[in-house]
Amino acid sequence: MSLIGNLFRSTVGRKFLMAVTGFILVGFVTGHLVGNLQVFAHPDKINGYAHFLQSLGPALWVVRLGLLAAVGIHIWAAVTLTLESKQARGPEPYGVKKWIRASVASRYMRLTGLVVLAFIAYHLAHFTIGAAGADTFKTRLAEYQMQEEFHLLGFPIVAKGQTVHDVYSMVFLGFSSPVVALFYMLAVALLTVHLLHGFDSMFQTIGWRSSKWSAALRTVTVLYCLAYLAGNLAIPGAILAGLVKPAPGTTAAQRIAAVAPASLAQR
Amino acid sequence: MAKLDSKIPSGPLADKWRKHKTEIKLVNPANKRKYEVIVVGAGLAGSSAAATLAELGYKVKSFVFHDSPRRAHSIAAQGGINAAKNYQNDGDSVYRLFYDTIKGGDYRAREANVHRLAEVSVNIIDQCVAQGVPFAREYGGLLANRSFGGAQVSRTFYARGQTGQQLLLGAYSALSRMVGQGAVELFTNEEMTDLVVVGGQAKGIITRNLVSGELRRWAADAVILATGGYGNVFNLSTYARGSNVTAIWRAYKRGACFGNPCYTQIHPTCIPVTGDYQSKLTLMSESLRNDGRIWVPKRKEDCRKDPASIAEEDRDYYLERMYPSFGNLAPRDIASRAAKRVCDEGRGIGETGLGVYLDFADAINRLGEAAVRERYGNLFDIYHEITDENAYKTPMRIYPAVHYTMGGLWVDYNLMSNVPGLFVLGEANFSDHGANRLGASALMQGLADGYFVIPYTIGDYLAGQKPGSRPSPDAPEFKEAEANVRAMTQRLLGAKGTQPVSHFHKRLGQIMWNYCGMARTKEGLQKALQELPKLREEFWATVKVPGSADTLNQSLENAGRVADFIELGELMCLDALTREESCGGHFREEHQYPDGECKRDDEKFGHVAAWEFQGPGQAPLRNVEPLNYEFVKMSVRNYK
Amino acid sequence: MVAEASNKTISVTLRVWRQAGPNQPGSFVDYTAKGLNTNMSFLELLDVVNDDITRQGGEPIAFAHDCREGICGTCSLVIDGKPHGPHRGVASCQTYVRSFADGAVITVEPFRARPFPVVKDLITDRAAFDKIQQAGGYISVRTGAAPDANANAVPKEDAELAMDAAACIGCGACVAACKNASAMLFVAAKVSHLGLMPQGQPERDKRVLAMVNTADDLGFGSCTNQYECSAACPKLISHDFIARLNRDYIGATFRSAFTPASANTGGGA
């Protein structure tokens, strides 16, 4: 078989593609989280950052398509391998079958993967396209005026006084809905479970794992997953619980102040 | 009367094989593919032969009754394989390996065969290493050796305690390569049930497919049997349950002579029988006797007591007492017979009274438990797994068990039986071990036969056969043989009995063990020869073989094998009775020195007994091939 | 201690999968076995049950077995949901009655996987493993062509690691245990054993590609890194070898795609 044939047809090749795309996606969700954590800082930060990403133009689309391809390949490989594995198991199920050592996370990869997929679809509709929760989508909100110059790695990116989309307010308003926030929290929890197996599994599939350091790798995996989970729960969690309030003067602060008495009255 | 021409080349011992190789006939490369060779069995000898013959260009068909060639019982050999490499610089040589093997066999093997074995032993190691066999190595990366019984040099190559497995997997990989290339056709789950002889020459076999039950006829230009030993005639042995005599027994009934059937090796250190349900005896490595002390209670009444409660002065360290210079490291046959003797006196231990203690308490006191664990940890684990006893705390229980048969079909120097075209390799033939096999020599012989002997010698026969002259499988001889198998199958299935096959196998095993086991007497053998025909008749009258012939039917498989074992048992007892001497694994109590060592009679029995079938119900004919010792003097084995 | 152990007897009920032949419907049938000495092996228990069935005029349970000392790889039972039974690092034949409680109901099934079709009752056809081996599980060396065994030094560590992999008995418990019926541990053991030896280098890439692709073609599933295989393996072969296999396979894939081949051997096309 050729290179493409081996990678896209053989089981090991497709697992390799899953690992590589998994690696890309782990990188993405990690970067995404770090970017999002700026919501706890001054609105300039996340809005300036968002504006920077938007301003990348074609480069943004390259990244987006790359990520979409990664997701697509990851899912395609997972689905085809799963179907083949179900086929391989044969027609007759075991009367009694016990797990010996497989981790709980590993047993539910297909389920957690599916929920994460559903979540990604919703998430894109919500914060990227604006199809869900359209009234709080960034394009419907008043533009935000940068109060300071925004730097990234020392480079000046967005000038003071420039008007940009108010992603900051979008996030606050989005997560002020308990249903939305709880769904987000559930989804990231399941994504964490997915990573709890997927993270060191990537290393095994690429061939970089061995019993000499698998325990250390496992520790890194667990620590990473805990940090990832904590960070991701913190954003919707803190907003929903009211632990962080939108910065005064932002659209989000005004809207929440306007709605709050009414929602209180409803309870 | 069979003509037994050993075809031993003339000339000096060390030149015989080289000379023979240059003188025997060759088949030209273009003609090789015109010859079909059947290889039955895929252990060390069968796999290596099938692979090598295919490499040479012959069309090979390989038959195994297992579901895969990798299951053959060579896989279970633990200790190692001898080779005269002299990598240790300890004075080893081809001659020394030859001499040790001849002496170990108690001067009942052919000099020329054994010398050839020693010569090719070095090639075997080269071949196996090239195949990727992961032999043990020293830190410098070169091959490691260990010492084994019967030798004063360190010449045994090993792969942990799984040497047989690794060598077999090497041969299996060579065979697999040839199967993958289409040079060998592999037939698994296919049991040979008869040999087809056409015009006095072996030209095919009948097989039963063990899955479909179908009987099939296979014609070829030559037939190679590499079907292993027949120790399961004793029912309980260290053999695999499936190991059987059927292929060579049915060849015997087609005219191939059976050489020295009574030569049986009994290994002293096996885990004893615990009950009548038992199917298998497990070997505990002989190396344990380096640090363990063997004893039984002095008094019968102590035998059921907790060994810890038996005082030192009430214990009989009988090997140390009887063989003070050799002690617990007495040779295999001596140690085995001594254990039998104390148990016969009623001083055996354990539930059945057939067991002796192998005690590590002294070693643990002297070296510490950790050191003992380091040396023998895996063996103690196996022991624990099987017996649920902790041998660090309580002595191991051991007892001798059958584990190799030196006898087998008679073959000449070319490994061809007296039926032209029928070749026999490995444990299935009688050739190289005489009356006793040394440790780590079985693997050597299997691979020597398959890799380095048959590829040369089969050409000598085939060159005399016209290419394409093999008969059609529709020839009357094939039909007759198939009908013969079918009739036997129907007879087994039709027996209106009530007893499962295992019932008869157990009874056969008891008769054989009691009368044709470690120590044999005239009276015992005569008794066995009265009981065995009765057992045979009872078997055919009262065996119950459920199921049908046209499906997978393990009862039927076993029934056929046990029927053959019962007949073989008679021949073994007859051979043991006739051989009025003791030699190696054949110990006649009437013929021993005062110290219990074998008393040979070279004058009368310095020969091979090759038994020839004379028809059902007829006494077999005892042919004799004299053993002419030209280079070594037959002397009393002395290991003291 | 000795007397106590061998005197103990128990009774159990076996729920055994009975299936008359390939592609025929099967079902569980219960058999009661009484007065079992706890030192009996599990296969001996089946022997005893079979003798009873035979005496009562039934057809005995077909089960695969041979050496009964854990090395031939023939025995292949799933006992109470675990390949080779409750204990780690043993084959079915090394499972003993003492591992079960008096009165236990023990479910006994064949290894199940599409590439291992049931032949009868508890026997499956594992010829697929031979086919994988035939695809490349060897070093191509003609008999007689070998250099002196000590011509090449093999680092002791490599030889030991190779032996760890080579200890595979080819029983198929890894496939039976895997929820995907993947043969990766088996393939990995063979590929690693030969790939760790200097002798195995010339064919290393060819071997791994051929063996994995053959396993795929035979219908084995893929690895999801859950390590049930190594836990069920009677020789406890490490799934580290699967990582090594993955690395070898991907490396071979890229090397074979980008390394020019001599046009004269026909490989250039």
Kindly summarize this structure in a few lines.
The complex is a heterotrimer of chains A (267), B (640) and C (269). Chain A has 267 residues and is mainly alpha-helical. Chain A contains ten helices and four strands.
Number of separate helices of chain B: 17
* CATH fold type of one domain in chain B: Flavocytochrome C3, Chain A, domain 1
Termini separation of chain B: 42 Å
Helix content of chain A: 55-70%
Low-confidence stretches of chain B: none
Q: Share of helix among residues of chain B?
A: 25-40%
Determine the CATH superfamily of one domain in chain B: Succinate dehydrogenase/fumarate reductase flavoprotein, catalytic domain
Please report the first level of CATH classification, the CATH class of one domain in chain B.
Alpha Beta
Count of separate DSSP helical elements of chain A: 10
Please give the order of strands in the largest beta sheet of chain B. Answer: 5-2-1-9-17
Whole-number radius of gyration of chain A? Answer: 22 Å
Shape of chain B: globular
Radius of gyration of chain B: 24 Å
Protein architecture, described:
- The complex is a heterotrimer of chains A (267), B (640) and C (269).
- Chain A is mostly helical.
- Chain A has helices spanning 3-9, 11-36, 43-54, 58-89, 104-107, 109-129, 167-175, 178-206, 214-240, 251-266; strands at residues 144-145, 150-152, 155-158, 163-164.
- Chain A has one domain: 3 helical TM bundles of succinate and fumarate reductases.
- In chain A, α7 (167-175) packs parallel to α10.
- Chain B has 17 helices and 19 strands.
- The longest helix of chain B has 25 residues, at 554-578.
- Chain B is globular and about 75 Å long.
- The mean pLDDT of chain B is 94.
- In chain C, α4 (156-166) runs antiparallel to α6 (184-195), α6 (184-195) packs across α9 and α7 packs across α9 (240-258).
- With 269 residues, chain C is α+β, with helices and mostly antiparallel strands.
- The longest helix of chain C has 19 residues, at 240-258.
- Classes of the chains: A mainly alpha (267), B alpha+beta (640), C alpha+beta (269).
- Chains in contact: A-C, B-C.
- The interface between B and C is large, with 91 and 86 residues.
